[in-house]
Amino acid sequence: MIINKALINGSKLINHSASPRLDVEVLLTKVLKISRSELIANTNKSISLFHLLLYFRLVFKRKLGYPVAYLTGHKEFYGREFFVTKHTLIPRPDTEILIAEALKIIQNNNINTIVDVGTGSGCIAVTLALETPQLKVYATDISRSALHTAQKNAKLYSLDSKVNFIHGDILNPILNILSPQTLIIANLPYLLPNEYKGEITFEPRGALISGQDGLKHYRELLKQLAQLPQEKRPNFLMIEIHPSTLNNLKDIISQIFLKNKVIITTDLSDRPRVLTLRLF
Ligand SMILES: C[S@@+](CC[C@H](N)C(=O)[O-])C[C@H]1O[C@@H](n2cnc3c(N)ncnc32)[C@H](O)[C@@H]1O
Known about the structure:
Elements: H1 3-13, H2 20-32, H3 36-41, H4 49-63, H5 68-72, E1 74-77, E2 80-83, H6 95-108, E3 113-117, H7 123-131, E4 136-141, H8 144-156, E5 163-167, E6 182-186, H9 216-226, E7 236-240, H10 246-256, E8 261-266, E9 272-278
Parallel strand pairs: 3-4, 3-6, 4-5, 6-7
Antiparallel strand pairs: 1-2, 7-9, 8-9
Bound molecules: S-adenosylmethionine.
S-adenosylmethionine (SAM) binds near residues 120 and 121.
């Protein structure tokens, strides 16, 4: 069978996908170990039976709902590839907004340390470490398996001695390193239980659901911040949020912190997505 026919037949099998043609192209490049541009330039070439079997095995898994990133083992984030496994959330384009906003805060303020809480694949910590080599970077996660992948990603970019990965619950494992010059950045779970359905159920529940109201993790993070003495409390916190919980989150913030300033950045669909909290 030639490449083009394999792509057409594969796309027909996964017509539930929002991007069937792209998905099968990515799966076939994985099997043939070539780039997408090479694939597209050689659509008339024939594929060996061995490669066809490997390819259709992946296509059938995709048909069952497996995300493409779990089938290929990697996902692009902020222009770089990151290893992902079933224990890590697949990095999302919306999270790149968090990076862009963090870089603005870092540029305009006296920040010397970044803490990425709930690092998952490590995409935020590794990206910020590469973009701001002058800063110290720490990353935490409650999942040891996710931390393992995050460390592998740091190694991929020769950052294994630069980013410190620490296991533990929210801020608990890094309380001793915090100061007003620390920027805390977090994309913690924020979905409601009834939103865990469809393709995202292939991703870890513990990376997505946050209590009954989607705010369990951020409520806890804010409480931990409030308990810090003034000389330890970071001046800035940046979090990725669920648009529908913004008002409840703002209420929690104003109940906990008398002095605060909230800045909201919207996502690619113009929904509130990043909340920056200034605490001085
Ligand atoms: C939404 S995922 C985000 C992963 C990654 N930061 C990203 O943007 O792709 C949330 C991450 O928080 C971690 N997590 C969940 N509960 C946690 C807790 N109590 N303390 C620290 N990390 C937690 C999960 O294991 C998961 O890796």
